Fold this sequence. Notes:
Elements: H1 11-15, E1 21-26, H2 32-35, H3 37-45, E2 49-55, E3 68-70, E4 73-76, H4 88-98, E5 105-108, H5 113-127, E6 131-137, H6 154-164, E7 173-179, H7 191-204, E8 207-212, H8 218-233, H9 240-249, E9 275-280, H10 281-287, H11 300-313
Parallel strand pairs: 1-2, 1-6, 2-5, 6-7
Antiparallel strand pairs: 3-4, 4-5, 7-9, 8-9
Helix pairs in contact: 3-8, 4-8, 5-6, 6-10, 8-9
Amino acid sequence: MTAMTALHTNPLFDRLHEAQRILVAGAGGGFDIYSGLPVALSLLHQGKEVHLANLSFAAIEGLPPDSWLAPDIAAVTPDAAPHQAYFPERTLARWLALHGYPGTVHAFARVGVQPLRAAYRALIEHYAIDAVVLVDGGTDILMRGDESGLGTPEEDLTSVGALAGLDIAGVTEKLVLSIGFGVDAYHGVSHGLVLENIAALERDGAYLGAFSVSRTTREGALFVDAVAHAQANTPEHPSIVNGSIAAAVQGAFGDVQFTDRTRGSELFVNPLMSLYFAFELDGLARRCLYLDRIEDTHLIRQVSSAIALFRDEVLSARPPRRIPH
Length: 325
């Protein structure tokens, strides 16, 4: 059961109060680590030692041998792979260095649960991490598996599965953050069902509440700057999720088009996109109906196949739930 806290405190930061070395990791690949940047910066500003990591979609196999902490986990610095145009981890490392922060972002290979768990173990033990915050830009990490649409859950739930089965002495907290409410409608997620799932996690004692990223805060302003920097440095493939969140943080509303990637689709940028929803990772993992199916995977395509097989067995998917208006 979730421990009691006071209304005037933030439950997430209250849970991290005693932690000194915290890993903030992007769950779903791509630019997901940017979604965790406001929290990571806040923890840094509190004097914590913070390390960043991300499940990478970039071609990290060619990084030099001294970049690798262990199989499937590499340290990416601002000068890494200068020939690669798309490299979110390096782009963030460059932004961090420009602003006087430690300029290293760790990149996990896009693998299945077993090797990803080993990579997480190596990273956590290397830095003596005592708390892990897994971040999803979007809400598909909250899908149980029996919904009408799951979005793109493969990488998110591989990350959840890897950490749920990881028991390391000294790691006192494993938490999940979801930000960008509404953005996954672009991928067929029913946000009425997202709210239903959050309510169930509340009943289970795994929901730690929500809080917003405001542009009036130092961290909110820096997040907006980091997203703009990423868009300028990755013009061919800007992040739809973080672009939408940053637009929401700045007060934009409705069909805000900032990239040709969304041409022909109607976006719904809104104030709820700037909300972090916080959860206990183990409680979230227990509600996933197919997590056991992906436990023994070694390749990401095995994860995709296992989820597809599970979906074929779902006799009656929960239909989309309309939010009254």
